Amino acid sequence: MTYSEKALEALKKGDVNQFNDDIKNAKENDSDDMLYSLAEELYSLGFLNDSLDIYKGLLKKYPDEDELRTSIADILISEGKIDKALNYLSEIKPDSPNYVNALMVEADLYQTQEMYSVSEHKLLEAEKIDPDENVIKFALAELYFSTGQFDKAIPIYLGLIKQGELNISSVNLVERLGVAYANAGHFEQAIGYLEQIKPIDMTPDVKFETGFTYLQLKDYAKAIEMLKQLREDDPQYASLYPYLGEAYIEMNEPENALKVYQEGMSVDQYNVNMYIRAADVAAKLSEEDLALKYLKEGHKVDPDNMELIIKLSNLYVKQGEYQKNVDFLAQYVKNEETDPQIYWNLAVSYAHLEKYDEAQKYYQRALPYFDDNPDFLHEAILLFRENGQIKETIKLLKRYVKLVPTDDEMAYMLEDLEDYE
Predict the structure, then answer these.
(1) How does residue 362 score in pLDDT terms, banded at 50, 70 and 90?
(2) CA–CA separation, 45 and 8 (whole Å)
(3) Which of 63, 232, 314, 343 has the most C-beta neighbours closer than 10 Å?
(4) CATH fold of 202-302, please?
């Protein structure tokens, strides 16, 4: 046995001291080809430092072997030594047989650094040099896929599949294409590819995308079936619960939807949208106390979520909890960019609390946003008239009767006030 072979044998036995001795002897006695093979094997086993040391020793002997530079750079990148890796790669010139490989390594490096445009540039340069190399095409598609540029990734994946490439680097291209179509909003095309994937090959992510795609195609029964399978496989897959609940709602099964949202909240306690959805379904089931509970819990999670704030305020108004609503909204009304619904809800609450000047103030603030809303105008008109604001009342009445010409009562009020004026 060569020392290289002995080193690998010692490694299998876990004899570290013998391994180190054999490595030293291998460097002094084994052929360079054997050492290169040893470095490759050590790299695959994760012994990067020993592999790197051998590669560097060989590069000193063979300074024109650029393949050694790419191997060294690859290890340095994995160790986070980016600048050193780039130094080795920069030594590989465009006329080198390993230049394309160097570009690929650089592209991977820049992608890990989130310098995606530079990574794309390197891959496009490599493709220009070797346009028939599918590995380059695949790398480019993967870059587009990972950065959400699905419409760019789709034709590349499609072209590779048409060439008979179904798997590259353990990636199922049919799966990738289906997911890319789904994320690009091309659901009809997506489901055609996703349904080709054998159940045994479906990862949790693919099951999620398939269920989501069925949902977008309004095939709610299949969406439920797929998302339930995903829940059985991986109940901690938090993203499934909002969509499974939505599918049940579309199937007019609110009780099941509520159960799903409750499960989802236990899986992801910080997903405020789950609390909102659960509250919506509880309200639909006339369980207002439960809806209030979920909205309050969601508010603790995200006190600045405006959708939740409005829903909680709306529920306070509906339940006649006007003082609670005023107290609750006090912290938000100070914000100049607050939602105008807050003004309306405050106006309603103050009116019921018989604080008419405050109510009028908030109706005035809300008016620019709701001047085409008959319900709002009707409330404001009655309040302004009660407060003796005749001119403002007439102005709002004129607006209202244009929107609701069939409301005779309000038309008569306008006539009476105009006569009075």
Answers:
(1) very high
(2) 10
(3) 343
(4) 1.25.40
